[in-house]
Each structure stands twice: as structure tokens, then as C-alpha cells.
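Open question from group meeting: does this chain pack into something compact, or does most of it stay loose? Before anyone orders reagents, we agreed to write out a predicted structure and look at it together. Recording both the input and the output here so the notebook holds the full record.
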Amino acid sequence: MRQTLGCGTVVLIMMAFSSYARAEEGTIIFADSFQGRLAEGWSWLRELPGAWRIREGGLEIRALPGDANTVKNALLRSAPDRAAGAFAVEVTVSNLTPPTVQFEQVGITWYVDGKPVFKLVKELIDGKTYIIPGRKPVENVPVRLRLVVDGHRWTAQYRPAGEKEFLVAAEGTLPPEKNDQVSLQCYHGPEDSEHWMRFEDFRIVRLTRKP
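C-alpha cells returned:
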């Protein structure tokens, strides 16, 4: 005898599947979908109010000239305690204007005691776009960046739009923990034109299984 599932049953099954997926991945420590305003806990480094905006569920920052030590509009928040277990920092990044300047980049930067010590970015090098570290070539499409931190070790992962699985770009170690912060930022932009970078669906996830 064939049994037909009602709409309510289908919804419950979908909710159960969604919950299972979340449980498999881990527990969300913090998330910001950039709906109208920034969530609590962020702070700006060298803020230029006219060069960032929240629009249609995304944070958009203008890429200005500068480097890791002079970057404008770096958005920071405290990172989780590394001793409490492995976690992943994720965000989707995209270039609203195709990059043209050598080393023009967008992504995640890790700070230890106020100093930038590591970055996971989409960067223009010699006319081609790469994921750094690892120098993995990618098309100029939205990319999901995923930085897994497990004690002193990091794993840089990425997933270009249209792909289903994360790819590993590189692995390495962080300096000893001291006032760790994670940042969303972009720099090495042009002086004479506006290049905007977009960040979507930021979250930090406590992992329940080995990355």
C-alpha cells in the first residue's frame, strides 16, 4: 500500500535532516548574516565610515591602498579560546569589481596581541586570482573561506561557488595564543577607482569531530 506524506511530515523530516547536519558539523559559537547592521562584538580598526556598508545581507568594504599593517576598515572580534577545542571560522567573499591591482585581496586575517600573523584570502597575483596560503588558482567567483584552528595548528580551506566540498589550501601553525582576534578585511585596492569587496554568512563553529 502506497503511503503519501503530508506537508507537515515533509517539513519535520527536512528539519530533522537539517538538525542532523548541524550536529555533525558542530555548534555555532557566533554568526552574523549582516542583516541591516553588524552583530554585537565587532570592532573597527582604522575605520573610515564612508568606505563600508551593509547591503542586502552582506558586508561590503571598499578595498583601499595599504597593506596588512596599514589596512583601513578591518573588522575584528575576539577569537574563541583555542584550549577549548577545535573550531572553524567561515565567510563567503566576492569581488564586486574585478581586481586589477597587484596583491589586491579579500578574506580573513588572524591577529595575535594586536599584530596580523596569518591570512586566508583571495588575492590577485600577476594577473591571476589565487587562494593564499597555498597559492591555489581560482576563478573570480564567490569563494567560501574556512579557517580551521585546532590548538596551535591551522588548516586553510576554500570552496569556490558551484563546488560541494572544501579543498585544502595549506596547513601550518600559529604563534602562542595571546589576545587572539579574527578579522574581515581587504586592501591593496586602487587609489583612483572604487573596488568593493563583499562578505556574507560569517560564522564561527565549534567542531565536534576532527577537522
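Observations to bring back to the group:
The CA atoms of residues 31 and 92 lie 13 Å apart.
Residues 1-24 have pLDDT under 50 and may be disordered.
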